[in-house]
């Protein structure tokens, strides 16, 4: 079976019952776009999906080699992240760092003195 990432060719076949997000979202279109792609650090798409192809009982099935790989492999990763985390690439993490707006309970007297 698969011994290294370069063994992933052609498009992976997942046995019936494979429930990984990789198996669900790796369509022919996504494979054709990404199969030979690398991120700017040389991390390949096949390296990203190798574990999930080798271990078909995986829950997610992908590992990224760098932060940039999330952008390089976005046609697959955006779908996986949206399903797993429940937010899309257009969602924003809103934050307000004004401590005066925090609604926190008062410290107990013995901790307040610290």
Can you walk me through this structure?
The longest helix is centred in the last third of the chain and has 12 residues. It is elongated and about 65 Å long. By secondary structure, it is mainly alpha-helical. It contains six helices and no strands.
What topology emerges from the helices and strands here?
Layout: H1 21-25, H2 28-34, H3 45-54, H4 69-72, H5 74-85, H6 109-112
Key phrases:
mainly alpha, about 35% helix, elongated
Question: Which sequence of SSEs, written as H and E, runs from N to C?
Answer: HHHHHH
Work out the helicity level: 25-40%
User: How many β strands by DSSP?
Assistant: 0
> What distance separates the N and C termini?
60 Å
What share of the residues does DSSP label as strand, in percent?
under 5%
Gyration radius from CA atoms, angstroms = 20 Å
Q: Structural class of the helix and strand makeup? A: mainly alpha
Largest sheet, described in full?
Answer: none
Mean pLDDT over the residues: 92
Outline, from the CA principal axes? elongated
Enumerate how many helices there are, as a single number.
6
Write a concise synopsis of the structure shown.
By secondary structure, this protein is mainly alpha-helical.
